[in-house]
Design goal:
By secondary structure, the chain is an alpha/beta fold. Helices cover 49% and strands 19% of the residues. Strand 18, helix 20 and strand 19 form a beta-alpha-beta unit. The longest helix is centred in the N-terminal third of the chain and has 52 residues, at 96-147. The chain starts with 13 loop residues before the first helix and ends in a 24-residue tail after the last strand. The protein binds ligand C2E and calcium ion (2 copies). The site of ligand C2E has 22 residues, from strand 12, helix 11 and strand 16. Ligand C2E binds at residues 336, 351-353, 364-366, 369, 385, 404-406, 466-467, 523-526, 543-545, 550.
Length: 566
């Protein structure tokens, strides 16, 4: 009979067959198929053979020939193998054709199995490779960033280094942070009369003097011309006063610069970390305190308190006004198209909230959503947003709506069921709903997030990861949460036309996302150049002012379901 043209070796028993197999392996071949002829042979010999071969060759195909009458042999083989996987039984008497067909089919199965295993191995290696590549690019960006964090004149941190350091300490340290902003009084006069070189020398000397009086763990930065910042941890009132007096003394020492005696002084504004964890807020408070110190006569320090602050008043107003705004119908939803990168066809809309306040005008969501999160009002506001967006989806026949859920809202008990109920109430299929989450919403409570995601995904709701690239998690890690789509943060898109590295990162992320089965939306696209580069980088969906600003549902161009717009 005609057998498939592969290398063939025959043996009298299993021992000999295994010997052949070892030889083949030594020559770099693998034995894929074993044809065992057990016609007329005792059952215990058969079972011994199968046991041995299965142990030695887990992944090979075994084809066993036996007499049609020998059903105990069949039962014995099955018992050993546990299943018929990779085992085929042929009963004698045999038609030659049947044997060839069977051998071919089994060989094919073996080949396909090996191929898919290799493909899986290859793709997981490719994914690893891409992750490494992204890591490397990130590291290179980090090096560039490091260089851009320092001040040339004094060697200390510059403003962006200072902000980053403060941010890091506020998120990672449990110690209370204090921010001191220091401004030299009458420095401009030195610069104007003695020249910039003299000004630089004075700045350098004062900087060195201040560095020498810092408490341990504190850090000094030069924030601008004659402006310095200090971050110091957990200082008592007494220690803070002591530190400030030392700095004032250092600054007001008289010095000889460019042959002239020079004396300046300093004003200091201090913010102590209270409820806020925002570096922007702490620096703003320290700045306000610094201006107060200057107003009050310079050469002194001033600690920030609420009385100094209009913004605190504004926040309080927002806090108390938001609930009223919700009930008085001052919140509105607007919708921004998400388009197909190549044709610009509108695929769906992201829902964004607006607050039109009669007292303050239009208040951006960046300002009031964080307040709503802190006060817990986000739960009511979030419910209103989701219901409104879904109603609009139904009313204006939007292809889908993408609803932003803040972390606190997403980690709410039963949020999955809630969203599905809102969709049902609005008569919108879950397939027309997408939710947007940030990484923190998932990572803050992995168990609850997984549960909520499962409920939503099973019903057909899509999940997008918002602001991707601003957090720290790897895509491969996030993949386990069954995310459909990642939205690449606007900061990458902003730089993409200018910085090759941003483009390369976006391309790697897009490629990796694709290999993990996720689609990619790039956000904040404002120019045709950006569109071209993003498309080449593998982003299949785009969003940004270039395609459409967020608009009230009633103002959306009619017929968005019709042919693509160019
Ligand atoms: P986000 O989710 O990243 O939303 C995208 C923001 O980018 C929106 O700002 C949008 O108007 C803006 N944008 C879109 N394309 C462009 C562009 O080409 N250029 C520029 N410069 N900006 C663009 P918006 O509406 O002010 O929202 C800001 C943030 O507030 C949102 O960022 C989101 O984090 C939050 N937010 C807005 N609406 C909601 C909401 O309904 N619920 C929740 N939880 N958060 C919301
Ligand atoms: Ca969003
Ligand atoms: Ca975003």
């Amino acid at each position: 009979m005609a057998l498939p043209t592969e290398t063939l070796a025959s043996a009298q028993d299993a021992g000999e067959a295994l010997h052949h197999f070892e030889q083949a392996r030594y020559l770099g071949r693998t034995a894929a198929l074993f044809l065992l002829d057990f016609r007329g042979i005792a059952i215990d010999q058969l079972t011994n053979c199968v046991t041995e071969l299965r142990k030695a060759l887990r992944n090979s195909e075994l084809i066993i020939l036996f007499d049609a009458t020998d059903s105990p042999a069949l039962a014995a083989c099955l018992k050993i193998a546990g299943s018929t996987e990779r085992m085929t039984f042929l009963t004698a008497p045999l038609g030659g054709n049947l044997v060839v067909k069977t051998l071919k089919a089994v060989a094919e199965r073996q080949r396909a199995g090996a191929h898919s295993k290799r493909a899986m191995r290859d793709s997981s290696e490719a994914i690893k490779g891409l992750e490494v590549q992204i890591e490397e690019l990130r590291a290179r960006l980090d090096i560039a960033k490091h260089a851009s964090r320092h001040d040339h004149l004094t060697g200390s941190l510059n403003r962006s280094g200072f902000v980053e350091e403060l941010n890091m300490r506020l998120t990672r340290n449990r110690q209370m942070q204090n921010v001191l902003m220091i401004d030299l009084d009458r420095f401009k006069a030195v610069n104007d009369t003695l020249g910039h070189a003299a000004g630089d020398e004075l700045v350098r000397k004062i900087s060195t003097g201040m560095a020498a009086v810092l408490p341990s763990g504190a850090i000094l930065a030069r924030l601008g011309g004659d402006e310095f910042g200090i971050i110091a941890e957990s200082l008592s009132d007494v220690a803070m006063t002591e530190l400030c007096n030392k700095i004032l003394r250092v600054a007001s020492q008289s010095r000889i610069i460019a042959g002239h005696e020079v004396q300046v002084s300093a004003s200091i504004g201090i913010a102590r970390q209270g409820a806020t964890h925002s570096e922007v807020e702490l620096m703003r408070q320290a700045d306000l305190a610094l201006y107060a110190a200057k107003r009050e006569g310079r050469n002194r320090f001033r600690v920030f308190d609420d009385a100094l602050d209009q913004v605190t008043q504004y926040r309080l107003t927002l806090e108390s006004g938001l609930e009223r705004a919700l009930n008085a119908g001052q919140l509105k939803m607007v919708y921004q198209p998400i388009v197909k990168a190549d044709t610009r066809a509108i695929l769906g809309y992201e829902a964004l909230v607006r607050w039109d306040s009669p007292d303050y005008g239009s208040i951006p969501p960046d300002e009031f959503i964080p307040i709503a999160e802190e006060t817990g009002l986000i739960l009511d506001v979030g419910e209103w947003i989701a219901r409104e967006a879904l109603r609009d989806c139904r009313k204006w026949n939007l292809p889908y709506v993408s609803i932003n859920l803040s972390s606190r809202q997403f980690l709410r008990h039963n949020v999955g069921e809630r969203i599905l109920r809102y969709a049902a109430d609005a008569d919108v299929s879950p397939h027309r709903v997408q939710i947007e989450l940030t990484e923190t919403a998932i990572i803050d409570d992995v168990e609850r997030a997984s549960y909520n995601l499962r409920i939503l995904r099973e019903a057909g709701v899509r999940v997008a990861l918002d602001d991707f690239g601003t957090g720290y998690s790897s895509l491969v890690y996030l993949k386990q949460f069954a995310i459909d789509c990642i939205k690449i943060d606007k900061s990458f898109v902003d730089n993409i036309a200018r910085e090759r590295q941003s483009a390369v990162i976006v391309a790697s992320v897009a490629k990796l996302a694709k290999s993990l089965g996720m689609s990619v939306v790039a956000e904040g696209v404002e120019t045709e150049d950006q569109r071209t580069i993003l498309m080449a980088s593998g982003c299949n969906m785009l969003q940004g002012f270039h395609f459409g600003r967020p608009m009230a549902a009633a103002e959306l161009a009619p017929g968005h379901l019709s042919e693509p717009k160019y």
